[in-house]
Specification:
Hypothetical Protein Yqey, Chain: A, domain1
């Protein structure tokens, strides 16, 4: 299970004296535990992946803000955190595979005018292997062409 893998990685980074990795993994584990307490049950791997994706999104937004503020030291820190979190996410789809899934979804959809519904259908198929923003842009591009 992903939670167990993160717990083992915490021990490894503690022994290996990797402070950034340790900080990020401890934070992620605490977020997982907070969510488990809120839901009063253990999270599934899919739910943990979803939580990790939210953390990745937060880091990416922070990187943009820090770049605009010319804070390269903080950009470097956030990018290091992104790398650590990204290690526990499923492999992202390549653009060719994603385009193929989007094309198939649009071709088989009954209502090709409802962009939101099409994006939702694609997101169900890619399930954590593609960013929602990227999917939305590609669906919009496919519908316009």
């Amino acid at each position: 299970m992903l939670k167990d893998e993160i717990q083992k990685a915490i021990l490894t980074s503690l022994k290996g004296k990797k402070p950034i990795e340790l900080k990020v993994l401890r934070f992620v584990l605490s977020q997982i535990k907070y969510e488990e307490i809120a839901q009063q049950r253990e999270l599934s791997n899919e739910e943990i992946v979803s939580l990790l994706q939210k953390e990745v999104k937060k880091r990416k937004e922070a990187i943009e803000l820090f770049k605009n503020g010319k804070r390269e030291d903080l950009v470097t820190d956030e990018e290091a955190q992104l790398t650590v979190i990204g290690h526990y996410l499923p492999k992202q789809l390549e653009s060719g595979e994603l385009d193929k899934i989007i094309k198939e979804t649009i071709d088989t959809a009954a209502d090709k005018t409802n962009r939101g519904k099409l994006i939702g259908l694609v997101m169900v198929k890619v399930k954590g292997r593609a960013d929602g923003k990227t999917v939305a842009e590609l669906v919009k591009k496919s519908l316009n062409s």
